[in-house]
Design brief:
Shape: elongated
Oligomer: single chain
Strand order of the largest sheet: 2-1-3-4-5
Number of helices: 18
Helix content: 40-55%
Length: about 450
């Protein structure tokens, strides 16, 4: 039988008891420590992670009131609250043991004991200790995440009129509970703006639940968003809350809503209209209390015209519509963003790089940034890693240089050139919009807008 990794501390003033317990447990657990002086308990707790303490109740000859045991019980709970405490007591002290359990002990065993009962009590104690320790770690992680989350959003950087307009709208809409639809190309910061709306709202101290509908399996849509009860399907081993219920009192952010199939759009519409969800396998409805923010990079209004997105659902989610500008339309912010990422990434990689050369900055301002803010961060990060200089030079920047082989026949008109590029790309990819958009360095949404503009 393989020993379980666990630290067990046995405290008793009777050396025979210590020996007996150690012999009984050493074949089951990796480390057994014995101690005949309770004054040394603190030392053991601070030097090692103790899973279980087996604690005798009395240590002075002639005293059977258990006061010393209760004292050390309290002491252990204060120093190591995750440690499981099991009392060792004689039959006549059962009432004392019950009192001790009320004060924080987990279990007690009567002297004399059988090895089977001793092992069962200690093994259960180890599992309980580990469960407590895991929960404490999760709580600590959650506290850190909450602290980080409530810090000011760093990527909302910009002085351009487009960004100022977007931020002014955020300030107006955030204090309300209005549904918001955020539109913009990939990498323009839709998640960051959704988070900022939440942080400026009255719901900021409650959950912010992000759901990426684009990556969510259709078969899991209802169970993930609405929850389920035990037995609702094969792997439903316990009642589980859906994302809408998890967002109680806070905000649910439905990202990439434009990717949601029509048959699921109707189910989402029902929930948003009625403000109620029904868990899978359960008949009753549960009211939801969550602010709804949606986002997409798809041409959602065009999709309504094409009947690939429900108009009634669009009306429900876009009480306020926030359009985020692509980076190429806010060139004044490129230097600010590049400098911000440079400071962040030089700290990450522990490099001393002061700034960008003027040529490098000019090149960034002239680049079309198909990947927007996400791309500028990636390019700056790569430059920070590869450069050996104290400035980022143009040779350190790796822009996407893929071009189409086209013949413009001497036409330098910008509008006509764009139209020809789009026509050539669509012809090259045999009408596949996704591939054409990728080749042009655009998102599908951006290409659809240009198709509409040029009436193609």
């Amino acid at each position: 039988m393989r020993k379980k990794e666990a630290n067990i501390l046995i405290v008793d003033d009777d050396d025979d008891i210590l020996f007996s317990v150690r012999i009984s447990l050493k074949k089951y657990f990796s480390k057994i420590v014995t101690e005949n002086n309770p004054k040394n308990i603190n030392s053991h707790l601070t030097k090692n992670t103790i899973d279980v303490v087996l604690l005798d109740m009395n240590y002075r000859i002639g005293f059977e009131d258990g006061k010393e045991g209760l004292y050390w019980l309290k002491n252990i709970k204060e120093i190591s609250p995750e440690t499981t405490i099991i009392l060792m007591t004689a039959f006549g002290s059962v009432n004392l043991a019950v009192d001790a359990i009320k004060k924080g002990a987990t279990d007690f065993i009567l002297k004399p004991w059988t090895t089977e009962k001793l092992y069962a009590a200690v093994n259960a104690g180890v599992e309980l200790s580990r469960s407590k320790r895991k929960n404490t770690q999760l709580e600590t992680i959650q506290e850190r995440q909450d602290k980080d989350f409530h810090q000011k959003t760093e990527h909302i950087i910009g002085t351009s009129s487009a960004m100022q307009s977007a931020m002014n709208l955020v300030k107006k809409v955030a204090p309300t509970d209005a549904n918001v639809l955020i539109l913009g190309e990939n990498g323009t910061g839709k998640f960051v703006f959704a988070k900022e709306i939440h942080l400026q709202s009255n719901r900021k101290n409650n959950p912010f639940i992000h759901v990426d509908l684009g990556s969510l399996n259709e078969n899991l849509f209802e169970s993930e968003l609405f929850g389920y009860v035990k037995g609702a399907f094969t792997d439903a081993h316990k009642d589980t809350l859906g994302r809408f219920e998890l967002a109680k009192g806070g905000t649910i952010f439905l990202d990439e809503i434009g990717n949601l199939p029509l048959h699921l759009q109707s189910k989402l519409l029902t929930v948003i209209q009625n403000r109620k969800v029904t868990r899978l396998g359960e008949g009753k409805e549960t009211e939801i209390d969550a602010r709804i923010i949606c986002a997409t990079n798809a041409p959602i209004h065009k999709m309504v015209d094409e009947e690939t997105f429900r108009q009634d659902l669009l009306f429900r989610i876009n009480t306020i519509e926030l359009n985020l500008p692509p980076l190429r339309e806010r060139t004044n912010d490129i230097k600010l963003l590049a400098t911000h990422f440079l400071g962040k990434l030089t700290q990450k990689y522990r490099k001393k790089i002061e700034n960008f050369t003027s040529e490098a900055l000019k090149a960034m301002e002239n680049y079309h940034w198909p990947g927007n803010i996400r791309e500028i961060e990636h390019i700056v990060e790569r430059a920070v890693i590869i450069t050996d200089n104290d400035e980022i030079e143009i040779s350190d920047l790796h822009f996407s240089t893929k071009k189409l082989d086209i013949n413009l026949e001497g036409n330098l008109n910008l509008e006509e050139t764009e139209k020809v590029l789009i026509q050539q790309a669509i012809q090259k990819h045999q009408g596949n919009i996704s591939r054409a958009a990728k080749d042009l360095g655009l998102t599908r949404a951006a290409l659809y807008r240009r198709l509409e503009k040029h009436q193609l």
